[in-house]
What we know:
Elements: E1 3-13, E2 19-29, E3 33-37, H1 44-51, E4 59-64, E5 67-68, H2 73-78, E6 80-83, H3 95-105, H4 112-121, H5 137-149, E7 155-159, H6 167-182, E8 186-190, H7 194-200, E9 203-208, E10 211-217, H8 218-225, E11 227-234, E12 250-252, E13 258-264, H9 272-281, E14 286-293, H10 296-305
Parallel strand pairs: 3-8, 3-9, 6-7, 7-8
Antiparallel strand pairs: 1-2, 1-4, 4-5, 9-10, 11-13, 11-14, 12-13
Amino acid sequence: MPAVIEVQDLTKTYAGGFQALRNVSLSINRGEIFALLGPNGAGKTTLINIVCGIVNLTSGKVFVDGHDIINEFRLARAKIGLVPQELPAESFETVWNTCRFSRGLFGKGADPEHIENVLKSLSLWDKKDTIGMALSGGMKRRVLIAKALAHEPEILFLDEPTAGVDVELRLDMWGVVKSLREQGVTVILTTHYIEEAEQLADRVGVINNGEIILVEEKNKLMREMGKKQLMLHLYDELDDVPLQLSNYDLELSPDKRELTYTYDTKGEHTGITDLINDLRRSGIRFNDLQTSQSSLEDIFVDLVKKT
């Protein structure tokens, strides 16, 4: 799949000497939803702002649909819609005019039908004549998306798009993001809600301390780095794990009433059948068992801890 964004050896050092990004290289495919994850201060917003032309890079190259963001700034920026993390100052303009003006800023001719379709897709049509300052926080965030889509960008950056909104609105916005992908829009998403990335992303990138530490297909990442666990609820307390079970990755709970077995999701054999047989031979009885698998959040936390 062809890359629509190419970041090559990107570094950003601020005047005070703080290095926000270090030799970042990244390719984002056309038409995908790419989730960029990282803790606060990892460099996510700096990276987005550089690609969008808001912050100057120190060194490296960035291409948007083949256009250099420095030498061909206007062509590159016209491809991009940006929904920033911060809500704007109170606006005295109506929702309709906000979107119309945004379209004009990119040199696009008037297209009331397009703006109407955008507002309807975001459940904003009944608010089209409402001024910004009269909207709720969730509605203001929807307006930011509508404004970013007004000039029909091929690439949409969403920086914490559902921060501070309620669960119902978050689910609605997930639907909007999925529909944009179906229309061929490339979506780059940063989020603190890891479940958001788990639900939406085709690929995941993890950034920490200004460096990209991993880029992988979401499903492959969860399959290869996820852990599966079997929890066995015991009939009787167990003081220690018997020596004959030392070959298994077993952990005894503090109350001594539960054994947790962690096994390899990639292995041909889980070892569960052997474990249960060995438990019986050891005289250890259990009255219930259940399994669990790592979420994307578990994997993310483990990756960040190692860097």
